[in-house]
Amino acid sequence: MRKVNNYIIEPEANLTGADLREADLREADLIGANLRGADLTRANLREADLRLSDLIGANLRGADLTRANLRLSDLTRADLTGADLTRADLREANLREADLTRADLREANLREADLTRANLREADLIGANLRGADLTRADFDFSVWPLWCGTASSKIKADKKLSAQLLYHACIIAQQHISFPSEIREFIEKYFHRYDEAEELK
């Protein structure tokens, strides 16, 4: 147990709405803690253990969560804009409607995570593991999508919009070598939301 900003930091702590802006919480043991609506703007949470924690609506803008353990945590509607989640463990985490704009998710483990309607615009996902993740209606515009086995899996749940977006980027390059069935072209034209702004498929 330790105190930070007059708050007791321990497993299952009740930190609902706590003001922990720029707090030093490195390696903190917050397993099962209630951090619902807490302000953790620019907090240092490197290697913190936040498994099973409630971070619904928490403000984690610019927070350092490098190698933090967030497995099975609830981050619904959390603001993670610009957060550093390098090598963070987010397996089976609930990130529904979370804002991950410009978040650093390099080598993060997002297996089985729920990213439904999450905002990942401009996020860096190099080396991230998305096997089994639910990406339905998530926004990946201008993000870095890695080409490795962690993102090449039939177990990733993606909606037609994201599927068409990724398919377009592959087809626009591959068309110099092969022609595509009309079904592929029609699917891209119908569901790729930026098709009217992009180079037309031949």
Structure description:
With 202 residues, this protein is low in regular secondary structure. The protein has a domain at 160-202. Helix content is 12%, strand content 3%. It has 2 helices and 2 strands, in the order ββαα. The protein has helices at 160-174, 182-191, and strands at residues 2-4, 7-9. A two-stranded antiparallel sheet has the order 1-2. The protein is elongated, with a radius of gyration of 19 Å. The protein starts with a strand and ends in an 11-residue tail after the last helix. The mean pLDDT is 95.
Compute the separation of the termini in Å.
63 Å
Structural class estimated from helices and strands: little secondary structure
Percent range for β-strand residues: under 5%
Please trace the helix and strand order, writing H or E for each element: EEHH
Given as residue ranges, the uncertain stretches (5+ residues, pLDDT < 50) are none
Spatial strand arrangement across the major sheet = 1-2
Please compute the radius of gyration using only Cα atoms.
Answer: 19 Å
Number of strands: 2
Task: Tell me roughly what share of residues is in helical segments.
Answer: 10-25%
- The total of helices stands at 2
Report mean pLDDT, rounded to a whole number: 95
Largest sheet: 2 strands, antiparallel
Task: State the shape.
Answer: elongated
Q: What oligomeric state is this?
A: single chain
